Amino acid sequence: MTALQAIILAIVQGVTELFPVSSLGHAVILPALLGWNIDEHSPGFLPFLVVMHLGTAVALLLYFARDWYDFATAVLVRHGPVAAHERRVLCLVIVATLPALVVGFLFEHLLRNGFGSPRFAAAFLVVNGSMLFAADRWKAKEARTLGQLRWRDALSIGLWQCLALIPGMSRSGATMSGGYLAGLNHQDAARFSFLTATPIILGAGVLEAPKLLHQSGAFNGVAV
């Protein structure tokens, strides 16, 4: 992979990450569409895509810095009903994060194969769009705020997030769809989706970065 190709992929990832359109899916499809000589089955390709998301994680961490600060102080020093509410929201974020960690660990090798198949990713981009349409049409009539979200709802959203382990399925789209079906409005569904994104992306980046370094930053023998 050339430096220019890496930059183009990074731009595509940055533009698509915060929209429910699967930035990973687009990054898998783009090399095939442009005819790049990149082996997407290379052991270094998926780690490269994952590490690109660390920039997104940093941006989300900065944007939601106040939320994470409130979570930390609510756990460590603050008391009272407001702190109790923030601790509960943090626990909901943790509950929603766990399913993807477990599924990703158990099915890592199987899931990796999908990230080397542009046709597979393209097919699931269509599925992703259908999911978003259906979730918005069938969202729960009973409106809930984030503070009213139940534990089983958080777990359900976490299970929806597991769909993002399939290239072409958007993480934010899946979690927001789960949020709609749990009764959250668009604003709270989006906020909860992005709060759950930070630990998932940071965790994946930390795990995949050593693998990328081990590959000496090269695909197909062409240095990045």
Task: Give an account of the 3D structure.
This protein has one domain. Helix content is 71%, strand content 2%. The protein has eleven helices and two strands, in the order αααααααααααββ. The protein has a two-stranded antiparallel ribbon with strand order 1-2. A hairpin with a 2-residue loop joins β1 and β2 (222-223). α2 (23-33) packs antiparallel against α8.
Describe the SSE topology.
Elements: H1 3-17, H2 23-33, H3 45-52, H4 54-63, H5 65-76, H6 81-106, H7 108-114, H8 118-137, H9 151-161, H10 171-181, H11 186-214, E1 218-219, E2 222-223
Antiparallel strand pairs: 1-2
Summary, kept brief:
With 224 residues, the protein is mostly helical. The chain is built from eleven helices and two strands.
Helix residue percentage: over 70%
Note the beta-strand portion. under 5%
Number of strands: 2
What form results from the Cα inertia axes? Answer: globular
Oligomeric status: single chain
Q: What is the C-alpha radius of gyration, as a whole number of Å?
A: 18 Å
Mean pLDDT: 83
Structural class: mainly alpha
User: Would you identify the regions where 5 or more consecutive residues have pLDDT less than 50?
Assistant: 217-224
| Largest sheet, strands/sense/barrel | 2 strands, antiparallel
The number of domains:
1
Number of helical regions? 11
Summarize this structure as a short list of keywords or feature phrases:
about 220 residues; mainly alpha; about 70% helix
